[in-house]
Amino acid sequence: MIALLIQALGRPLLRLRYRIHREGKEPSPSKGGGGILFLATHPSLVDPFLLMSELRPRFAPLLVAGRDHAAPAPLRWLGRLMGARSLPDPAGYPPNGGDRCREALHAELMSLSRSLVLGRNLILFPGGRLARQKTEDLSDNSVVETLLRQAPGTRVVLVRLHGLWGSRFSAASGRRPALGLELLKSFVYLAANLGFFMPRREVRLSLEEVPDLPLDEGRQALNQALETRLNEGATPRTFVPYLVWKDHAPRTLPEPPRPRVEGNPRTVPPQVREAVRRHLQAVTGRTDIQETQALVKDLNLDAMDLRELELWIQRAYGYSCSDPAALQTVADLQLAATGAAVSLRQGELKAVPHAWFHSRTDLPIHMPEGDTILEVFLKQAKRDPRRVALADQTGGVKTYRDVLTAILVLKPLFENLEGTHVGLMLPASGGASILYLALLFAGKTPVLVNWTAGSRSMGYGLDLLDVKHVITVSTLINRLDAQGVDLSAVKPRLLLLDEVGKTIGLATKLKAAFRARFNWTTLLEAKPQETAAVLFTSGSESHPKAVPLTHGNILANIRDAAQALHFREDERVMGCLPPFHAFGLTTTTILPLLLGLRVVYHPNPTEGRMLARIIEAYHATLLVGTPTFLGGILRQAEDRHLESLRIVVSGAEKCPEPIYATLAKRWPKTTVLEGYGITECSPVVSVNREEDPRMGSIGKPLLSVEWAIVDMEKGRRVEPGQPGMLLVRGPSVFSGYLNADVDSPFETFEGRQWYRTGDLVYQDRGVLVFSGRLKRFVKLGGEMVSLPAIEEALSRRFQAEDETEPLLAVESSVEELNPDLILFSVAGIARDEANAVIRAAGLSSLHNIRVVRKIDQIPTLGTGKTDYRALKALLAEANT
């Protein structure tokens, strides 16, 4: 009765928008024999209702819902009301319940086969999911073969729905439509057109009985035959106007790109590649798993297998694939385990709340006075607590009042933690910013934990500061565990915030919300530690050193940066750098909150495609990143993605010329401001100015930074244009390492104490130009040979533009006298070929490579920089 009611109401409504034409010779209903299996194309969400309204009067078919697990709840609910039968989904079973799910599927298919044998007709969408192209892909379908083998004599009728591709209920826009929203819009358009005058979409419904299917040739041959015949005459993406008085003529639109996983398989960590390979071996029973193999064609996986793989990736690595149709090869699956599959064009971003764009912007950008980060933050929040402060796709948009509420909830919890130093291990996110402030308000010193540094380095730093607790979330821990990251030094100290959050009652949250609105007394009375953060040097050259930065250090650096960069009232910052990196902590975690800039976060800086889409969605105007991460964004962005960017700030390593060239060609309105910084200097030392950017330079030192370029052998300043060691001093420079056994980084020069950067620079027409780290120079034949210069020459020749990870690195052997220059290469570059490139670049024969070593992957740090300490370790192992 309910199905009849839906049909009675749905058919007239459908006819108000769709003009349906029946084509082809209609088969006769089954009489006394087996049933008919209708196999239909699935271009839109209205297909089930349209087909049932057209076929029910004569054939009374039973609708079988396929594996489109992304179907919205209203659609599934309506399907059940219409008596539809759903095939089992592995998501409804425990992680190890694959066998149970297959048993349930087998039982359901047996039941459907019996229905066919008894003469019941079925409608099935063999593609299993809403079409992503105008044509159907049936390659992984195994249901049709099973039904036909279990119900011999079943008649097969192909149902082609032409004309629906491109409607608002299709995925032709590149994303899955939201059924409820689109239905609401449709009713609005119906009302605007007075119902009967709404422009009609021409739909052709053709039925074709096919008696000659190659069932005996196997599943792939059967699917190929069905796919070829179902896709005959497929219509292009067509837009049909919605208003009778506007845009009268339908028009053809461009087809969306095929879904695919973004990324370079070389970037997948070896342990992840191996874990995926082992899992596929267990699933398929095969040992010859290769990255280039197709999951369906080569490994013979079906829809259930692919769904289980998708769920395994989600459960093991924390990433949900936005469009499983993109998982075509073993390499795609490995990339999906690193989050690449959430960077698909079809992946839906959550809608950006209205408040993000219409937050109050009439307040001038300036940093209030104050001696601590907390004092400045509270003064900035007081200016307008309703103003948007930060956002991300997980937590949504947060105002200053929301941030204050969260701090008031967390502060008492953190005050009870043992010790003055508390670890914080989180990627770039709104939550990381809030937790950092909450620790300061609780009187703790945040210790930023870098999980990419390795277990030994993490354990060393935590033991050095006697850290008892490290705050993080279980999703990050699960993901790192699944990727094979060694967390043994951290796990005994973990405090999982999502678990702690379950113990916080509603009364506590309501009380915090009330106090955030009316009474901040406890926050105003907070007495923070003198040290605002402890970070660790990258360890690219030696053991990581503990760097304490005071409130005064960081505040001085932020004031200088604001004076140099001239932020605007409507600035929107894109933040992706992890807070364990000084560049990320200061510029995208603390600076926006203290200056009143809106910042949107994404946790993975290597997901270039997703970052580009977030920049577009949030209309970001300022992007801060390292060249490695910036290059990934530029390579994977479409032109429209970065149109809102006004400034790109590059730091942490030399910005290569291709980044300048790409931005100048594709986004000429965007200015690149390259800078230079050091963790010990909070971190920015110099940066180019918007009014006078100089490509290849690191700009002018910040206002409060005193500097000197010194010839260390002669103990005096060098002449302008000559390279020398950069010495700096000022309020943003730290006071010394916390490691008791580390040599002092300070140098007495001209009667005053300076911080020795270890970097060589020279002055060129009023700006500084970076020459390289002193430790990256080798003395050969009495001449200082620059290893970065060799790398740059070789990279221009061997590093392709679409590569997001380094393919080569140059290091010297451990001998102090006349060391060998060693080229580490992923591509297996020949020594003679490398030296020919070096000579062509104008470098002397002293720069020639003496040894070439081929390795699977160039080791990198969390910032994307090459991990030279790991390369030196490889050399040391080779010599033992």
From TrEMBL:
Q: Name one Pfam family in it.
A: AMP-binding
What InterPro entries does the entry give? AMP-bd_C_sf (IPR045851), AMP-binding_CS (IPR020845), AMP-dep_synth/lig_dom (IPR000873), ANL_N_sf (IPR042099), ATP-dep_AMP-bd_enzyme (IPR050237)
Positions of the AMP-dependent synthetase/ligase domain? 379-738
Q: Which Gene3D superfamilies match?
A: 3.30.300.30, N-terminal domain of ligase-like
Origin species: Geothrix limicola
Q: Superkingdom, according to UniProt? A: Bacteria
Name recorded for this polypeptide: AMP-dependent synthetase/ligase domain-containing protein
